């Protein structure tokens, strides 16, 4: 299925993306019939996207100062919380009308950026909520040189638990790089994608009440790469491993229940290539993993393509593979609602095929549901109560020189699985 014509609304101007990924600079979430978009200039725009409202129309807008970009957004306490990549690394809570309720600058804990360079700025990597608290994972990256002149990676990172009034209930600090959070009423799971320092656990499960570690797990592989994403499930968790390119289901305490290869090193025409499994989502019906770009074991460039790159893989809760489907390009995150996933397909920086730009919807058990083709790249998505929204950004590939797409929000109704 393909939804070619959907209601859209303009989000303003933004410099087009290029062939290489520049990291997240937009976010979107759904709350009570509103799509709240965090933009590349740090502003928020809220649109009524309820089914009976006609084309999306702006309900409110909040303008901020400085030069931030909003990279994370979740509903919370009747409003929305957003996280920035910016010099201040701010977390902001807004009510249902967009009014600012509280704000917190993570640079207070992470320190100032080493340089005013995008990837060195404090970064709110992930937000999650339960019925009582907001959880945020923030990090700051810097480069260091040791006594022998070797270039070293270093991270400062903090996981926060905020009450509805912005009070910090607890924090958990490491020198690892958090990439993803998941939370329920009892636990907060933290995935660390890089561990170059003293912290050597790709997954930490914290007590939601006090932030104390309950248990930890690691793929046990060489190097800094560890875990790409985590989804809590039945006392345990499902994780996508950057260390060995596999998916795991873990029982409480970290015992491995199953392990499934997803994009492990494979010989393609004499070149050994792999792809990182970047995302995972679970429901009572199964688990879905989403893989990213192809990389060679030697160097950075390759003409080979891993057969499982840019793939959504649906598994049963017993680890049996049910279905596979393409996602078109690199997905910076997932929109999820129960058994429904919205996967935004951004650049495939190796092939740069604009025909693959799309938002793709999947059902955990049954696979592909619908596809919304776009001119530009889709960089953020959310889904809730039968409505999916997606942020499209313009793109110019270096070997084409043509600007495709625009900065805009799409709305599409979810559908029953295609057969």
UniProtKB/TrEMBL annotation:
<dbReference type="InterPro" id="IPR018391">
    <property type="entry name" value="PQQ_b-propeller_rpt"/>
</dbReference>
<feature type="domain" description="Pyrrolo-quinoline quinone repeat">
    <location>
        <begin position="88"/>
        <end position="268"/>
    </location>
</feature>
<dbReference type="Pfam" id="PF13360">
    <property type="entry name" value="PQQ_2"/>
</dbReference>
<feature type="region of interest" description="Disordered">
    <location>
        <begin position="1"/>
        <end position="26"/>
    </location>
</feature>
<protein>
    <submittedName>
        <fullName>Transcriptional regulator</fullName>
    </submittedName>
</protein>
<dbReference type="InterPro" id="IPR002372">
    <property type="entry name" value="PQQ_rpt_dom"/>
</dbReference>
<dbReference type="InterPro" id="IPR015943">
    <property type="entry name" value="WD40/YVTN_repeat-like_dom_sf"/>
</dbReference>
<dbReference type="InterPro" id="IPR011047">
    <property type="entry name" value="Quinoprotein_ADH-like_sf"/>
</dbReference>
């Amino acid at each position: 299925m393909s939804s070619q014509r959907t209601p859209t609304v303009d989000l303003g101007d933004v410099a087009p993306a290029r062939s290489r990924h520049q990291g997240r600079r937009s976010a979107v979430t759904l709350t009570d019939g509103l799509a709240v978009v965090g933009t590349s200039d740090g502003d928020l725009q809220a649109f009524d996207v309820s089914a009976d409202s006609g084309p999306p129309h702006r309900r409110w807008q909040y303008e901020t100062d400085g030069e931030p970009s909003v990279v994370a957004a979740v509903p919370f306490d009747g409003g929305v919380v957003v996280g920035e990549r910016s010099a201040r690394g701010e977390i902001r809570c807004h009510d249902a009308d967009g009014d600012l309720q509280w704000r917190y600058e993570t640079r207070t804990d992470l320190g100032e950026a080493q340089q005013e360079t995008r990837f060195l700025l404090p970064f709110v990597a992930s937000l999650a909520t339960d019925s009582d608290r907001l959880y945020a994972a923030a990090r700051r990256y810097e480069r260091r040189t040791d006594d022998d002149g070797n270039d070293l990676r270093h991270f400062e990172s903090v996981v926060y638990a905020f009450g509805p009034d912005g009070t910090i209930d607890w924090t958990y600090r490491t020198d690892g790089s958090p990439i993803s959070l998941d939370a329920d009423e009892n636990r907060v799971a933290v995935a660390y994608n890089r561990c170059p320092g003293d912290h050597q656990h790709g997954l930490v499960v914290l007590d939601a009440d006090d932030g104390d570690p309950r248990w930890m797990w690691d793929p046990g592989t060489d190097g800094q790469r560890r875990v790409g994403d985590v989804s809590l499930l039945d006392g345990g968790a499902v994780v996508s491993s950057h260390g060995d390119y596999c998916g795991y289901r873990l029982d409480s305490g970290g015992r491995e229940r199953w392990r499934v290869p997803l994009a492990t090193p494979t010989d393609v025409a004499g070149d050994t290539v792999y792809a990182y499994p970047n995302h995972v989502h679970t429901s009572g019906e199964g688990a879905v993993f989403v893989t990213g770009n192809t990389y060679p074991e030697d160097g950075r460039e390759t003409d080979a393509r891993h057969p499982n790159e840019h793939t959504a893989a649906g598994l049963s809760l017993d680890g049996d593979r049910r279905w596979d489907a393409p996602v078109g390009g690199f997905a910076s995150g997932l929109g999820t609602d129960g058994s429904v996933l919205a996967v935004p397909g951004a650049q495939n920086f190796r092939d740069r095929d604009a025909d693959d730009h799309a938002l793709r919807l999947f059902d955990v058990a049954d696979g592909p549901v619908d596809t919304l083709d776009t001119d530009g790249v889709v960089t953020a998505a959310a889904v809730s109560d039968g409505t999916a929204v997606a942020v499209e950004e313009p793109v110019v590939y270096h070997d084409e020189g043509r600007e495709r797409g625009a900065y805009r929000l799409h709305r599409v109704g979810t559908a029953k699985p295609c057969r």
